[in-house]
Each structure stands twice: as structure tokens, then as C-alpha cells.
Design goal:
Number of strands: 34
Helix content: 25-40%
Number of domains: 5
Number of helices: 17
Length: 656
């Protein structure tokens, strides 16, 4: 091992990053400037420092004893800090004696059009990195045990695949679903694009397999209510809501539902079909057990009298389940955009304006119309249908979303094609902004819809929607932007292709798990390219639409990736924790508890009996909140000590 305790000898390595950096900065001048800085004994420039050759330049200088500190001026540490740290470690130098100066995102990329100040800013960034490197101290990673059990939150197609993959590898899996059945939105679909496979035929066997898997415990009608601990050792509280039906005793015969006098809307059928107060969400539900909806139940007890297994229990209570897990995978899915508040399209006012998910249920063979879509106003098959695209998506209006939901174009074409197969004479219009057929076989699907099925594509958004009071038809006024003229259509029914949004409880899950959300409410990945299923909380993964809008193949691919990441951690039996945690000097601590209240990761605790504040090293993520807030200067953060930060400030502002 290289001796890092001696006088700092820093090597500075400037990366061209092709033209990303060198196209804006004069890297030869920057290399010469770096060579003049205190403690710098080596200054090099290379086209791609992250390449094998670039890493070897650093390693050879370490192995030859020329340097004992490393500064790489390149891209963001989020991209390649681990790459350079690994290279440093393999050369025999403590990996935490490395510092990365971001001269790409923080300089060249923001000065591509105006390069006047770019060079001096690059000098400032490199100078500060060198100043910090001079004060760096060797650190050691910690190792913690990882329990071979996984918690999967959400049991749609993503959660089912994660649970199945982990269960097949022998890990203990708990699959939590907040509704009475697993399956998620995919169970609501009739067919899937572009192959037009039966959705139920795909997911039902998966649901049954998960339901019967010896290593998977399904906790349906349950929610995660508390999470403590850290990677490998998460302590989780799960609240199982009362079914008011003994799930072990219930045989699923349905006699209770037959005699129930209460009728209400069925959520699974998007309110287009009725259900009883004691119900099974849909025929293929797993578990195939009944639940009582106490919000509508009148407690007439007719179901109790009818139930032969005596499974009805009106005194059922919520149950708290506590369990420890090594990893957590979030697969909570999405909710469809609710167009009720978007008045121009008339949803909720005109009966013959429905959503894409409602149309999906009408097309389903076990849906409210047994696969034969009808107009809600009169129960007749429509002769003309218009699909409105980007409803709730690609808009900066209040209450709308500015992102593309990715699946809406495809499911509109799929539904239009399905209807044309049943009613070849029907006129189908799709009003769109841009058709986004992005996946494998999707463009061909689009061409077939237009060429072989005769579906009319009109480029332009609907501006106004009215109802014809004589026949409840929908009158549409829009502009065909290709023909550059206004148009007016009268159709029997309108289908709003609504987009996908983050689940309503995504913020609750975010706070429980300390997992960040993006501005649109979906869970944030650790890195959009290199770590798309990891989160910044170690041991917690995210997959499917919980991470962002995507189709079924991409959801399943992410689910398998998340399962692989979780399995890798659990198979190792232990995991390394980066030593960026904070440390308390109890001799200086006044026990004011400011840090306890402010810590976003609940990593700091107070022992009242011992009058001692402690930091859980595994929970601490090194955010520095406690360090900044401590009035006694009793807290020090590894790798970001006051001496290291002040060295950067002093060199950034020499006259300070």
C-alpha cells in the first residue's frame, strides 16, 4: 500500500471528454496551470480519462510512488467517481484520497455558446479540488450484514416479476399490495400492443404462480406504515387492513355476494360496472377471497347468515406486522390522469366522453359490456369514435403534466384497431400532436392501423367539445395542422387517451423510505443512465412506472434488473457502506438535540439515560445537515471536514 501519511504529492489529470470539454476549454493551458498549484507534482492531459488507458496513467504514477493524492478534472462525480476510486484502490492507494473536479457540467457545457469566462472558471474548479485533496485523509469502508429477505411494495406486473425472480432464487419475499388483489393495472387490460396478446392470459398465470410460490408471502389489502434501519437490516411495519372476511376460511364461493342488497360502483371496472358491498374485484383475483367494503356495508348480516364456512367477521381489526428485510423494491405503479377538472373535453359532463382505461374495460371479455363497447348514454354500439391524445400529458397548463406518458399513442391505436375488428364499418379518428411509436414493432403497428384498418389520423388537438342534445353525440372543433384548416366532427363517442401519473401515495412512500422524487412525482433513480433502478438510499430499488412512464416490456425489464440488484446484495451476505458519515465528539456535545430533529435520514438518536447522542453510521448518508446546524461544532463529517471545506474556500477567495 502507498503511504498516504507523508507530505501530499498530488497528480492532476485533465480529461478532454472528446469535444465535450476540450471543445470549449484550452486543456493544455489548464494542465500547465495545474502544475503550478501547491503540492501538485504531476499534471497530465488525456482524451478520455475514464478509458482503460486513462486509468492506467493514474495507476502507474501511484505505483511508481510519484503521487499519493489524485485529482481528475472531468465530468460529474455521479458519472465516474466510482470508476476513478476503483482505479486508485487497485493501484494501492486509499480510494478516498481521490477528488473529482467537475469541469464539464459545471463549466464547459454551460459555456458552449459564451466561452469568455470558461477557462478561468475551470482554473477555479481545479484549484479548489487540489486544495481539498491536500487535506484529504484515508478512510475505510464499513461492512454490514444483509438479511436474505426482500420486501416488494406494489403487486402489479413489475412487483410480480420481482417477487417471482427473487423467490425462484430462494430468497424470502414479502409482496405488499394495498388493494384486495394482486395484478395491478395490467389485469384491467384486454390486449397488449403490438402483439395483441391477451393481457389476462399473460398475467393471470403469473398471479397464480406468485400466489402459490413457497418463498413468497402475499400481504394484500395492506400498506407499509413505518420503515427503520438501513441496507441489509430494514425494520418494517406493515398494516394489514381488515377484510371482515376470514381469508383462511373463505372458499370464494360467492354466496355472500349473491345475497348482499348493497350495490355500488366497481373500481376495477372504472365505475362502469356495479359490485356488491361484499365483493371479489374480478373473477381471476389472487387471492380469490372476498372483502367487505365497510364504507358501503349496512351490516344487515345477510352475508353472515349465508356463509357456510362462517368466514364473516364484522369485528375484524387492522393488524400490525413487523419484519426485517435485507432489501426493498418499490413497484407501486401509477394512477391514470383524471380529466374531470379539464372541462373543455367534457368528461363527467357528457356521458359519451370516457377515458382510455374505461374503454379498455369495455373491450375486455369480462368487463362491463363483455367485450362489446357501447355508448354509456343509450347502450348502443357507436358508429364513430374519436380518440383524443395527450390528455393530461405534454401540456404546461395548471393541473396537467409536461412529460410524455409514452403509452397513450399505442393504446389508442390498439383500442381503435380492436373496435374496427368488431365493427369494420365504424369511423375512427385519432386526434394527435405527434405519434410516438418508440418501441420494437411499434412503428409497424402504427402503419398497419392507418393502412389496413383505415383509422383516420388527424394532426391537431381538439379545441372545443360540445354535446348534441338531440342524440347525445359529441361535436368536436379542432384544427388539422397538416392541412392548416379548422375542422368539425360529430361522433357517437369520444375516448380520452389519458396519461400516467405518480401514485397518490408516492410522497408517503418517499418519506418512509427516504427516496427522492423527481419534479413530476415519480421516484428518482440514482443515475438516469448507469443506475436506472437503484435509488440513493442503499438497498432500496425502484422498477416500473413508479420510476417513470413506460410500457409493459420496459417495466418487466426493469423489474428483472431490480430483482437482480437486490439478489446480488443478498447473495453476498454483506455490503460495503461508504464512510461519508458524520461523527460526534461527545466531549463538545451539549445534547441540544438540534441534529436529531433535523436529520432527514433519522440516523441520529439520543439516549436520555446516558445523555448521549449517537449517529448510526449505516443510516447516515453524509448530507451534512447536522454538521452545519450544530452550535457546538461537535459534529464532523468524514471527507467534508471543516479544514477541507475551508481550504477550498480560501483558495477560491484568496483575499478572504
Amino acid at each position: 500500500m502507498v503511504n498516504s501519511d507523508e507530505e501530499p504529492r498530488i497528480g492532476v489529470y485533465i480529461c478532454d471528454c472528446g469535444v465535450n470539454i476540450a471543445g470549449v476549454l484550452d486543456n493544455d493551458e489548464l494542465r500547465e496551470y495545474a502544475a503550478t498549484l501547491p503540492n501538485v507534482v504531476k499534471s497530465e492531459r488525456y482524451k478520455f480519462m475514464c478509458s482503460e488507458i486513462g486509468q492506467k496513467l493514474i495507476q502507474e504514477d501511484i505505483e511508481n510512488g510519484e503521487i499519493n493524492r489524485v485529482v481528475v478534472a472531468a465530468c460529474s462525480p455521479r458519472m465516474h467517481e466510482n470508476t476513478f476510486r476503483k482505479a486508485t484502490r487497485e493501484a494501492g492507494l486509499n480510494e478516498f484520497l481521490f477528488e473529482q473536479a467537475n469541469i464539464r457540467e459545471h463549466d464547459s457545457w454551460v459555456h458552449m455558446r459564451q466561452q469568455d469566462d470558461a477557462q478561468s472558471i475551470a482554473q477555479d474548479i481545479v484549484r479548489m479540488a487540489v486544495a481539498k485533496a491536500s487535506k484529504l485523509e484515508p478512510l475505510e469502508v464499513m461492512k454490514v450484514e444483509v438479511k436474505p429477505s426482500a420486501l416488494v411494495i406494489g403487486a402489479g406486473i413489475a412487483g410480480i416479476n420481482v417477487a417471482k425472480d427473487l423467490g425462484d432464487q430462494g430468497f424470502d419475499v414479502t409482496l405488499v399490495e394495498k388493494t384486495p388483489t394482486i395484478g395491478g393495472h395490467m389485469a384491467q387490460l384486454d390486449k397488449t400492443f403490438p402483439t395483441m396478446d391477451c393481457s389476462a392470459c399473460i398475467i393471470t398465470p403469473e398471479m397464480v404462480e406468485v400466489g402459490n410460490h413457497p418463498n413468497i408471502n402475499i400481504l394484500n389489502y395492506a400498506e407499509v406504515t413505518k420503515v427503520d434501519g438501513f441496507v441489509g437490516n430494514f425494520k418494517v411495519e406493515i398494516t394489514k387492513k381488515p377484510h371482515y372476511v376470514d381469508q383462511e376460511a373463505c372458499t370464494g364461493c360467492g354466496g355472500c355476494s349473491d345475497v348482499c342488497p348493497v350495490i355500488t360502483g366497481n373500481e376495477f371496472d372504472e365505475g362502469m360496472k356495479e359490485r356488491k358491498a361484499i365483493y371479489l374485484p374480478f373473477p381471476q383475483a389472487v387471492p380469490n377471497k372476498f372483502t367487505i367494503d365497510m364504507d358501503h356495508c349496512i351490516k344487515c348480516e345477510l352475508c353472515k347468515d349465508e356463509c357456510e364456512p362462517d368466514a364473516i367477521n364484522f369485528d375484524d381489526k387492522p393488524k400490525k406486522i413487523e419484519k426485517e428485510f435485507g432489501t426493498i423494491i418499490v413497484t407501486t405503479g401509477y394512477k391514470a390522469f383524471d380529466p374531470s377538472d379539464y372541462t373543455p373535453y367534457g368528461f363527467g359532463r357528457f356521458p359519451n366522453v370516457i377515458t382510455g382505461l374505461q374503454m379498455e374495460r369495455e373491450l375486455s371479455s369480462f368487463g362491463p359490456t363483455v367485450g362489446k363497447p357501447v355508448r354509456p348514454s343509450d347502450g348502443k354500439a357507436p358508429h364513430s369514435i374519436a380518440f383524443f391524445q395527450c390528455v393530461g400529458s405534454r401540456s404546461f397548463q395548471p393541473g396537467m403534466n409536461n412529460y410524455c406518458s409514452r403509452v397513450c399513442c399505442m393504446y389508442a391505436m390498439k383500442q381503435a384497431r380492436q373496435y374496427k375488428e368488431k365493427h369494420p364499418e365504424a369511423e375512427i379518428y385519432i386526434l394527435y400532436m405527434d405519434i410516438r411509436a418508440f418501441g420494437k414493432g411499434y412503428e409497424e403497428f402504427y402503419e398497419i392501423a392507418a393502412r389496413e384498418y383505415g383509422i383516420n389520423f388527424i394532426r391537431g388537438r381538439a379545441a372545443e367539445v360540445f354535446e348534441n342534445p338531440e342524440n347525445n353525440n359529441i361535436i368536436i372543433r379542432a384544427e388539422d395542422t397538416l392541412l392548416k384548416r379548422p375542422i368539425e366532427l360529430e361522433v357517437d363517442m369520444v375516448v380520452l387517451s389519458v396519461g400516467l401519473e405518480a401514485q397518490e401515495d408516492a410522497t408517503v412512500i418517499s418519506r418512509l423510505l427516504n427516496v427522492s422524487q423527481t419534479a413530476d412525482g415519480f421516484f428518482m433513480e440514482a443515475h438516469p443512465k448507469l443506475r436506472p433502478i437503484d435509488t440513493l438510499s442503499d438497498g432500496i430499488f425502484v422498477a416500473g412506472v413508479a420510476q417513470g412512464p413506460k410500457d409493459i416490456p420496459d417495466t418487466v425489464a426493469q423489474a428483472k434488473g431490480a430483482a437482480s440488484g437486490a439478489a446480488s446484495l443478498m447473495a453476498q451476505g454483506e455490503v460495503e457502506i461508504e464512510p461519508y458519515f458524520s461523527v460526534i465528539n461527545n466531549a463538545l456535545c451539549s445534547s441540544c438535540l438540534s441534529c436529531v430533529d433535523l436529520c432527514p435520514y433519522t440516523a441520529i438518536s439520543y439516549d436520555k439515560l446516558a445523555n448521549l447522542v449517537t449517529i448510526n453510521k449505516a443510516l447516515c448518508k453524509g448530507c451534512g445537515t447536522c454538521t452545519a446546524a450544530c452550535p457546538c461544532n461537535a459534529i464532523t463529517q468524514n471527507h467534508f471536514k471543516v479544514s477541507q471545506i475551508m481550504a477550498m474556500i480560501d483558495t477560491a477567495i484568496p483575499t478572504r
